[in-house]
Amino acid sequence: MRVLIGFFKFSPVFVLAGLMISGMNCLIAAPIATVYAFIVATITDKLKFDELVDCAVDNVKHLNLVFFILMLAYAMAEIFMATGVGAAIVNIALSLGVTGRSVAIVAFAVTCTLSVATGTSWGTFAACAPIFLWLNHMVDGNILLTTASIAGGACFGDNIGLISDTTVVSSGIHNVEVVDRVKSQGPWSVVCLVIAAILIYIIGIHMGLPTEAADASLAIEKIPTQVMVDLKAQRPSAVDLLNQVKTGVPYYMAIPLVLVLIVAFKGLPTLLCLSVGIISSYILGIFAGTVESLNSFLALIMTGFEGAGSWVIVMMMWVGAFGGVMSKMKAFEPLSILILKIVRNVRQLMFMNGLLCLAGNAALADEMAQIVTVGPITKELVEKNVEGSKEDIYTLRLRNSTFASSLGVFGSQLIPWHVYIGFYIGILTAVYPLYQFKPFDIIQYNVMAFVTVGSILILTLTGLDRFIPKFGLPREPDVKLKKKEVEEYASDK
């Protein structure tokens, strides 16, 4: 009977997963799953409606700071796309010249940088795909290698960028500072980037691709008019960036990104980092002529606020309420006990947390849904079952947060039915109709995704993460499982 009750308590997760897999928007799926969780909690734990509302609201309260960060992050992303920051980054890279052999690696480098600047993999892919696919066409590169490199690079900043919604949300759920997250995972992310870049270039050499250079502006000129119309319907800011790449913007418009990174690595609060990026973009944009007036600049901020408020913040409020109810009725306890029976130490527990994130991403087919659904489970596994100093537990929370976004964003690149892949196929079909793209076309050459997903799991399990600065997990006995208490609890059940 207790097993059946435990399964019933966990069933709201299956409801949410089922609704997401069926194609329902998370803004609808999350409220439905939350209402169902209310019903389950009322039946199993005899909890009153007011009690459930209180625990749902209390859980959402913890995310208030995250909401403000998200609003500023979306605003800065919109500003960077519209004021020429993104275009300056692209043009600096393209000024070096591109060949059939180097187009994939240049596309990878540009999208990595641009995604850090804008905090969006979707926007980066939409902005860069037209440039590099037609540039690839001109220099006779490999279309699949270039496409996969754009996808892998676009995810880099979405996983580590200060203004990435996945970074912000995953950090908020695990109660860690975004800046601390970036500092701890930064060295590992850079190592993955370097390894992936080397492998992409080696693959290009092995394919025997040509070495004649071409001009990116000519590639943009050759983009068919209908392609631009279709792209504008799907991602208007990407068209603005393309036009700025074509007409040119001063290279100093890349300074706001540099300032944000400097302030971040100085350890200042995330809200201050974002404010520096927004203010510097306005000042430099006035000189560059990319900002027409204060009112037009404020309109960009408002657009960013609307983007955050119309989807991600509302979704997080509902999922936060969902998590509060699930925690109140201890819905994740049976899963925690099962995992704790399997693992023998903290490192194995953390490895299982990584696998949970990857499995959740595949089941939900949406990285944000995975972050907010699986996050409370992995968080509870550490908080209730691991003992150690406050600093060491915080390090474990940082790794859980990194698992959530890394295995969410890059894991999505390896799942054929994921919404990310569907978005990519849609963009590719619109901007480059000369090739019929399929999911595995993107997956098979996405070197960055394979390197990132494989390395974080292997490094966590083997303990080799200690050789990467700031990335190693605390060792036992500094941290250890509360094994005795867990075994006693499990036997009572």
UniProtKB/TrEMBL annotation:
Q: Name one Pfam family in it.
A: Na_H_antiporter
Question: Which key words are in the record?
Answer: Antiport, Cell membrane, Membrane, Transmembrane, Transmembrane helix, Transport
Location within or outside the cell:
Cell membrane
Q: Does the keyword Ribonucleoprotein apply?
A: no
| Keyword Transmembrane (UniProt) | yes
Where does this protein chiefly localize? Answer: membrane
Q: Where are the transmembrane segments?
A: 12-44, 65-90, 102-135, 190-209, 249-265, 272-291, 297-325, 346-365, 417-435, 447-468
Output the PANTHER family linked to this UniProt entry.
MALATE-2H(+)/NA(+)-LACTATE ANTIPORTER (PTHR33451), NA+_H+ ANTIPORTER (PTHR33451:SF5)
Task: Please report which protein family the annotation says this sequence is part of.
Answer: Belongs to the NhaC Na(+)/H(+) (TC 2.A.35) antiporter family.
Instruction: Kindly provide the name given to this protein in its UniProt entry.
Output: Na+/H+ antiporter NhaC
Q: Which organism is it from?
A: Metaclostridioides mangenotii
